[in-house]
Structure prediction request, 516 residues.
Amino acid sequence: MNFFKKIFGKYLTNAVQTREIPETRAINGSENREMDDTKGQGDLLSKDRTTSAAERLIIESFHCPYCGSTKFVRRGFRQKKREKIQLYLCSSCQKTFTPYSTKGKRYPMEVVIDAISIYNLGYSLEQTCRLVSQRNPKSQILNSKQAQNSNNQNPKQKGFEHSNLENSNLSRISDLEFRISIPPSTLTDWLAEFAELCRFSRMRSFALKKYSPKDMVISATLAHRQLYRFRFHRAKCELVIKDDFKHRRFGPLQEFLEMVPTECPHQYFSRREVGIPTEASGQKGLRASEAPLTFSKTQMIVRAKQNYANKLCAFALQGVKERKGRHEALQKFMLCNDSVTVATEVPVYITRDDIEHMQSQLGFQIFSRSAPEVVRPLESGDKSQGNILSKDQDNIGSGTRNDNMLPKLITGHIDILQIRNGQIHILDFKPHAEKERPIEQLTLYAMALSRLTGLRLFEFKCAWFDEKDYFEFYPLHVLHKPKKGSRRRKVKTDEGVYKINQDRKKILSVRPITNY
Prediction:
């Protein structure tokens, strides 16, 4: 008898433990889920490696707001009227905090951001509140007893009936949708509170004179290996170009963006079928991030700055629930609310003939990643600057190498396109921006957009950023190396003094060596 009692007691104990483990993990923080940016990429780490991608943090530079520590664990949830917020416990100062920097909001941050963006598209306060209510329903599934009671009521008294009442299996369950209702006065308070981040408000009245809210933004879904949502703010682009004399030469860019939904060659962006040669399946381009091309990093600098895009990124990411939605949320917020972003997910491409033209006519030098690097030392009295570029040995377009090394087509999608300060800015959102060096990718974007619009490469600037850092460079400095190189070794900027990069393969430093 004792033998059976031990066996049954053992299995009963295990069953209870397995039922309690998920509940404990969902409510209380675990020591295994500790975050340390010095060891990884700032994500929640788990010793048993059960942490899914949905549970990872949205903001990579997330830290304790009290002591700045990156070591913390989950500590349950805070249940509010309209949402449930994850709490964290700092391992250093033992204080509890949330991942949101904006405090005291009765509505979810995604609702706040959505309402501000809709209003800046040109809708009135009442129209915006109505649209937000339609976009953000909250559904609650009742139990069978409540469902039966609701089914016995008069249909006029029901809040919402299930769309498939004919199905007997679903007749016991009804979905009641409680729509989020925002009064116009609350929306007015939000607009006043976040006016510093929404600079398009000063252009909103002028934009409404040119376009209605429905026609202000052109959007198109592009099936290019995956789905991309192209958006073009027509009113903002027209105001920025025509009202500032420094931007009037960017008219070809506006024409190009207008034609993207109808004139984009979608066949260039499709994936080449496996086993079929490129000539048989048509021109299928390589992505810019996969192109086997590189550039010399000498005689250039990458500036580390604090840009307005960092503030917009930190604010917009508060309304994101999943990591895969970060790009989409940031692009929508910047396009609707700032005063310089004119387009997002812009498709661009560049052909082999375009690259050869840039090499032969403009003197741009492009190198292959797989080519052997031959660097000839600079002898006394030699003015060819061979130690910097080795153009005769390694440049694809010099004629000494086979031009078949150039890809026939390179394609890509620009995350964010801005017009400001007399230049066109190509921006790319990169989590952990300080660890990234997308020089080749952004330079190819600038080359492609220059060829498609007919604008000089001199007019472009490239940058990558996250909520903490912003790094920018001139693509012209990457491609064009003057024969008579400057003897300067340092450059003074507003952030400090930068050392001109002398390494051909990589950027040695993106921070100023001295600050003002």
